[in-house]
UniProtKB/TrEMBL annotation:
Pfam families per the UniProt record, alphabetical: ArsC
InterPro entries membership: Arsenate_reductase-like, Thioredoxin-like_sf, Tscrpt_reg_Spx/MgsR
Similarity comment: Belongs to the ArsC family.
Full protein name: ArsC family reductase
Amino acid sequence: MTIHIYGIPNCDTVKKARKWLDANAIEYTFHDYKKEGVERGQLVRWADRVGWEVLLNRRGTTFRKLDDADKADIDRTKAIALMEEHTSMIKRPVAEHEDGARILVGFAESEWENAWC
C-alpha cells in the first residue's frame, strides 16, 4: 500500500503527518504543491470526493489576504479556481490511497490510524 501525500514540506501539519507515516512504516510519496503545482482535474476530483468546503483552507494567510470581492459568494467553481491559482489555499495535507479509494484532508491521528493501519 502506498499513500500519496500532497502539501508543502514546511507546513507543520504536513510534517506531523509524514512523521506519523514514517513511525508506522507506511510507504508514501510526497507531492510538493509549491514546486509541482496541482492540476485542475485533481482539484475537481478531490472536491467531488470530499467537498470543496473541506478542501478550501479559509484559515490561512493567503485566503485572509484576498479582497472581499474574491471571498464573497464562494461556490465550488470559484473555490477550485482559487485553489488552482493559490495552492496554499488547499488544506494540508491531502492524503490519497494509491488506488484513489480513500482520501483524507488534514491530519488527525485517529482518522489516519483507522484509514491506513
